[in-house]
Amino acid sequence: MTRRSTQLLAFGTSVVAILFAAAYSAPAPSKVVPSSTSGRSAAALQAQVALGRQMVVSHACGECHGGGDNPAAPFWLDGMRDTILQQFRIGPFVTRAKNLTPDIATGTGSFTERQIFNALRYGLRPEETPDVEITSTTPGQGNYPLHPHYLAVPMPWPSWRNMSNDELYAIAAYLKNGLKPVSHKVQDSDGPPDFWAGEYTVAKIGPYPVPPFPTANEKGGR
Prior knowledge:
Blueprint: H1 7-16, H2 42-58, H3 62-65, E1 87-90, E2 93-96, H4 113-122, H5 157-160, H6 165-177, H7 202-205
Antiparallel strand pairs: 1-2
Helix pairs in contact: 2-6, 4-6
């Protein structure tokens, strides 16, 4: 997400960049990462959290979820407090940046790291998606929900899905283990009855994974 001066451009990009998984099939994650901290040493968890923090800061999560690009700022990632900068109107719907801190009642505290990973890779709402490894992007197959409930626009998960497994799990580890919980309830976002599936077509986002290099638009491609 971009700063306020370019948010309108970002909204358009996000809408174009959203995927309905029924139109394509993607490989399963190449390695299984524990959905809790039990399988990692303290040093490994610390390194993972540090990488996740770097990814969160460098990808401007705080521009919408709070705190800008400064983890020391007030309200860091604790969700919408400013209806000008953190609330977005998409057609007739209003979407709101959620609390990403690990508060159980109002944030991500009740989700596993794998549920957060699945949100970032597949765009699936963690509160409505089981803690399972997903091996397909065809609804009803490989633990992919038959009727997917997707994250609200303008969350740019269609871009984030192209990050590596390690990067996405590191973000999840940071949100779960690197942040202090903040109790701050954000009103649920509005959305269409199909949970944005109509915006998640391959025509609007392109395939996942992306076509191999070079394409016809790149040097060496035809």
